[in-house]
Design goal:
The chain is of the alpha/beta class and 353 residues long. The chain has two domains: 1-98 and 261-353, Isopropylmalate Dehydrogenase (3-Layer(aba) Sandwich); 115-253, Isopropylmalate Dehydrogenase (3-Layer(aba) Sandwich). The protein has helices at residues 13-27, 41-47, 53-61, 84-94, 118-121, 162-177, 193-206, 219-228, 240-253, 292-304, 309-324, 342-351, and strands at 2-9, 32-36, 64-69, 99-105, 126-132, 142-146, 152-156, 182-187, 213-218, 235-238, 263-265, 272-273, 327-328, 338-339. The chain binds 3-isopropylmalic acid (IPM) and magnesium ion. 3-isopropylmalic acid (IPM) is lined by residues 71, 85, 88, 244, 276, 278. Magnesium ion (MG) is lined by residues 244, 248.
């Protein structure tokens, strides 16, 4: 029996997680044991901190962790060190999951939800963002201070060590070996010293993968090329903040941020799985949230952590079938399709498993 730590979180988190657990129970009855964990705003309310030690321990002892989303306006004014997002970063760091895999693939039935020109979308979009997840500005020193002139100032440090870059580069090249063998490393080496080290180390790692073609792009150019020629991308490897920003851009290219799952992996199989969307407090509790991103996280978990390939395939196929049937939550609705609620989306996916 696989032990799964479940963090429903805040906002739409519990809705999309509930749908995903139902899907997992259907696809492999009796295969999993779920333990619910408090993290995020709900943990602040209950325990006064976003990530109680006990919560992290449960995740560390589980075979995998499934996470909905955390945060919301209710906690916007809590001190920065106990913000819900701190809890999220604590889980990522505490599980040592340095490689965040964010696939951006256009589902054929959703082609009309792609905002790009038809001739661009038709060339197909299928790339993966490999985002470094436990370094960079997110985990560098954060400081608010006063200058000698008495002016308010603040700084956030972007710092990378060679081994942090090396291990994430390996993840990217290995992924590319199983795909179209193109790696695009995204940095800002024309400005940032940390990016120059990034580029140097990525080039060194590339020597171990002679079959893979390596390109470098500055992040501003990358954001442009993703819209201009998305079909030319295969695997993008980039640091934490750039990956955060580019993956939101990628989500719109493929239709909706509600569709994209992610897997965060470390040196072992105990991954952390979370959709790339946030807690969407504006639609929470209204049964409007698209559960597909999280349900696809469930499929990634089966594949990467548990080696349950056929079950993962079945989930992905059921999602594809529902989309082919023209069923759409509000975020992916276009004219001529059928608008349904989030729970109906769950039911329709389950009935096709
Ligand atoms: C994401 C999110 C998080 C991040 C937030 C909620 C802290 O935007 O997973 O992309 O910045 O990593
Ligand atoms: Mg983000």
């Amino acid at each position: 029996m696989k032990k799964i730590a479940v963090i429903p979180g805040d906002g739409i988190g519990p809705e999309v997680i509930g749908a995903t657990l139902d899907v997992l129970k259907k696809v492999a009855p009796g295969a999993f044991e779920f333990e619910e964990v408090a993290m995020g705003g709900n943990a602040i309310d209950k325990y006064g901190e976003p990530l109680p030690a006990e919560s992290l321990k449960i995740c560390q002892n589980a075979d995998a962790t499934l996470l909905g989303a955390v945060g919301g306006p209710k906690w916007d004014n809590v001190p920065p060190e106990i913000r819900p997002e701190r809890g999220l970063l604590g889980v990522r760091k505490g599980l040592k999951v340095f490689a965040n895999i964010r696939p951006a693939k256009i589902f054929a039935p959703l082609a009309s939800a792609c905002p790009l020109r038809k001739d661009i979308a038709e060339k197909g979009i299928d790339f993966i963002i490999v985002r470094e997840l436990t370094g960079g500005i997110y985990f560098g020193k954060h400081e608010a201070f006063t200058t000698p002139d008495g002016e308010k100032a603040a700084r956030d440090v972007m710092e990378y060590t060679e081994h942090e870059i090396r291990r994430i580069a390996h993840v990217g090249f290995k992924m590319a070996m199983n795909r179209r063998k193109i790696v695009t490393s995204v940095d800002k080496a024309n400005i940032l010293t940390s990016s120059r080290l990034w580029r140097e180390v990525v080039e060194d790692v590339a020597k171990e993968y002679p079959e893979v073609k390596l390109n470098h792009l500055y992040v501003d150019n990358a954001s442009m090329q993703l819209i201009r020629v998305p079909n030319e991308f295969d695997v993008i490897v980039t640091e934490n903040t750039f990956g955060d920003i580019l993956s939101d851009e990628a989500s719109q290219i493929v239709g909706s941020i509600g569709m994209i799952p992610s897997a965060s992996l470390g040196d072992n199989n105990r991954g952390l799985y979370e959709p790339i969307h946030g807690s969407a407090p504006d639609i929470a509790g209204q049964d409007k949230a698209n559960p597909i991103g999280t349900i696809l996280c469930g499929a990634m978990m089966l594949r990467y952590s548990f080696g349950m390939m056929s079950e993962a395939d079945r989930i992905e196929k059921a999602v594809d079938d529902v989309l082919k049937a023209g069923l759409r939550t509000p975020d992916i609705f276009t004219e001529g399709t059928t608008l349904i609620t989030g729970s109906k989306m769950r039911d329709e996916i389950i009935s096709r498993l």
